[in-house]
Amino acid sequence: MLGLMQDQPLLISSLIEFAGRHHADAEIVSRRVEGDIHRYRYGDALARSKQVARALDRLNLAFGDRVATLAWNGYRHFELYFGVSGSGRVLHTINPRLAADQVAWIANHAEDRVLCFDMTFLPIIKGIWRHCKTVTHWIALCEAAALPTDTGIEGLCSYEQWIAPESNVYDWPVFDERSAAALCYTSGTTGNPKGALYSHRSTMLHAYGAALPDALCLSARDCVLPVVPMFHVNAWGLPYACAMTGAKLVFPGGALDGKSVYDLIEGEGVTMAAGVPTVWLGLLNHMAQEKVRFSTLNRTVIGGSACPPAMIRTFKDDYGVTVLHAWGMTEMSPLGTVCNLKLKQVALATEEQMSVLVKQGRAVFGVEMKIVDPQGQELPWDGKASGDLLVKGPWIIKAYFKGEGGDPLVGGWFPTGDVATIDADGFMQITDRSKDVIKSGGEWISSIDVENIAVAHPAVAMAACIGVAHPKWDERPLLVVTKKPGLDVSRQELLAFYAGKVAKWQVPDDVVFVDSIPLGATGKMQKMKLREQFKDHKWPSA
Amino acid sequence: MLGLMQDQPLLISSLIEFAGRHHADAEIVSRRVEGDIHRYRYGDALARSKQVARALDRLNLAFGDRVATLAWNGYRHFELYFGVSGSGRVLHTINPRLAADQVAWIANHAEDRVLCFDMTFLPIIKGIWRHCKTVTHWIALCEAAALPTDTGIEGLCSYEQWIAPESNVYDWPVFDERSAAALCYTSGTTGNPKGALYSHRSTMLHAYGAALPDALCLSARDCVLPVVPMFHVNAWGLPYACAMTGAKLVFPGGALDGKSVYDLIEGEGVTMAAGVPTVWLGLLNHMAQEKVRFSTLNRTVIGGSACPPAMIRTFKDDYGVTVLHAWGMTEMSPLGTVCNLKLKQVALATEEQMSVLVKQGRAVFGVEMKIVDPQGQELPWDGKASGDLLVKGPWIIKAYFKGEGGDPLVGGWFPTGDVATIDADGFMQITDRSKDVIKSGGEWISSIDVENIAVAHPAVAMAACIGVAHPKWDERPLLVVTKKPGLDVSRQELLAFYAGKVAKWQVPDDVVFVDSIPLGATGKMQKMKLREQFKDHKWPSA
């Protein structure tokens, strides 16, 4: 027997329609690539999203056709989120930090029909447009006047010119909520990138989950700064979740340096900011140098990589800002866990709370998780047993776009590639990426644990711990370190710094100092490159 | 093109499974009808819900069969919520405040197979069991020892005896999320009660919506007291939303007097309580008498009837508790709106905030609303135009159970029977029930406005304003009042109290003092009865 409730599909268009109607005057502020600040409101965003939808109709784009973006966080990108998906096409956000040939490869693989790009990326487009076989329309996210006439790119048009002829009267189409809405490719550390194809249903359920008090706690009283890029798993879903709640939105464009981010936070009254640890490092350095403080920020969501405990402490102790440690993946839309305390932990002493807050946190409702041993047997939630982390849920992929890589699921569960513990309260902690774990004489050493200790040393800027072949122990940990400008530390000092912090056999066997550690397109340390570089490292004889 | 996300139906079983796994040790505290306090945890609730599911299997109940309850808020009722719906049967919560013959009528109409009741309702069951043709099993929510042997009721068993033989190992079935999950009958002020048949999908989406920061803001740091009964639109969905978030739950049983409620709030550290205005009146009276205060409560959700502004002020000014004014209906699962401030209102002066907080609030994401004139034309959102309120969304009914009453929708929208204004910020304010509006010489007078002024008078306990036939004006307002014990006010004094508060033509033409105002099964004033009682009221000649 079926219930007798209204049949209404969960569609992304309902988000911007709701925001435009219920929060018409709530602001959306963008730092443009031109450097100036642009302001408008949800009511304007709704009207212009509808112009985008009509402009796509005019191009005769079919239902499900892909429209790509190569763009920073800004209002035009925001309009594309809703105009493209809302009208039944698929928004394909491409990471502009990828090599140009990878961008072209992805655009071809996705069979993008339209590609919209910020003017900062015009050089990339000039280099690749002839190789993008399926793209017939190139849209530069600018005014007509800002577009050079001599680019030579066929089918090029400015965004403002493109949408200008369209009225903002438009009835969003109604269709199956399982329809594809957006496409993101993984960064693809091995092999070609693979696409995660989100549906309207998955995006809407993820938005509900992300806005919950135990996740990002988003409301109409918030002012949200997504520093995490809109080309990186849809800025962790914030454009959708903010429209759902009517939160004021502040987009940083391409200026992610400490001063620019700080100025936006203070100038716009940001209450919540979200990004990867490297961005916050720049912000905290700027603030320490300038001796400035926050007046409105009350929380930051940190994900993408594990947040060093030292950073959580600095935010809390020095600036009164709560760090919400979060974990997710492109394949998970991306939110999996957020670290929010439980009732029984609210009254704990600061140190005890810290031991919780360094973990990646509890599952957002909608995500199931488990850890298993190498034989696939489930391991206990005791905070000690560590195993491969598997997840399941309506906003987690069941396959990659075009079936690339075959069936990724194991008995209905998606293997994350992370190794983790889960404690009795459901707090999950990543101990390592499974490929980064160091296997020393039958025991596992977490590269993350070793790195967290290193970056707590005042002279260390960044640290990567990798396993390198060892004649006796199979692998032993090698620490690769960059120093902070003007500060120094020796190999001996750094190794001594581990005393009493971990078991002796977990202390790295050696330290090498480098000028820089290679970062991938999403800001993560590329340990694979380091493993290649140091594969013949000669261990000290002692 | 469909997305490639995991196909996972939204099922109620996932709520208790999540709570039992992620919040195994979070408490559920119940004041039992026996008077004592019972404590256990979500882990226990999960195990016993599975025993209920197995016990229903043992009775050979089919998918979709109805299991009724006649019970206060308590842990056994909570287990039935998940054991019944989770196993694919339909939970039918009956309001025990209805007349016994109405209970029997509803049980027969719903074709209930099992009926579970609190021992306080044994007298009702004794009177009706022979008339309930479809019920084959009567389950008394108590220990075997507490059950009298001489009731004469065939098929009677105690709950504990019923579930005791069952193991708590059970795999929840997986089925279409649109399947029926729960059934609630409206109080039926005209004609027979009609059933709203909720689905798993509608219940899950409602739980996500209800837990949002702009709705009830539920988290694992909350301790929630649903004073609103679980037989009244599923306690506004709190059992589901609390399981979703792992909030500590406190159930008051049948003791809803001021002292009992206050003692629970203080004893258990309640942070949020939800109920109808009449319950809070008792609580506030008790607190004023005993000169006591709250130590943990930070918000109350008030719905069911409009909350008098004076009560909102008392909670805020005297006790520092925020009142979340809410509005909904049985046909809406029930949440429609909750009154939470927006960012731009946070810094407003108290009086300006009050002018917002007296409204019923903003739509929870998932609910669309509009107001229309008598011709069905949409009216503007200007806070002034008032018209019939219509709603739409995935947790709103499209028809009543068994098609009773025909098609209730008007062009896809459900007419609420309320008259309301909506302001530019989307804050909705009920001005009246459409049937309670007083039509005086072509102008409408809101009975609620008139009542709110009356109850602000220190000597008035309760006030109902009704339209009574008038030779010149068609209808004129008559105020029916009960006085607070030991306090007095005259007709003239009360009418003078309106001076300067409303236009002269909106002041009631007369006042009658009564000992009590009749209340319906859900605690609402039964104005229909008053209209009948005073239909021949003789207006004063002046």
What characteristics describe this protein?
homodimer; 542 residues; alpha/beta; 9-stranded mixed β-sheet; 7-stranded mixed β-sheet; 28% helix
In brief:
Chain A is of the alpha/beta class and 542 residues long. Chain A contains 16 helices and 25 strands. In chain A, the strands form five sheets. The first copy, chain A, has a nine-stranded mixed β-sheet with strand order 2-1-11-10-12-13-14-15-16, with helices on both faces.
Q: Determine the fraction of residues in helical runs of chain A and give it as a percent range.
A: 25-40%
This entry's quaternary arrangement is homodimer
Strand order across the largest sheet of chain A: 2-1-11-10-12-13-14-15-16
In one word, what is the shape of chain A?
globular
Distance N to C terminus of chain A? 74 Å
Chains forming the largest contact: A-B, 76 and 76 residues
What is the rounded Rg of chain A? 24 Å
- What ranges of chain A have pLDDT less than 50 throughout 5 or more consecutive residues? none
Give the integer mean of the pLDDT values of chain A: 94
Total helices of chain A: the number is: 16
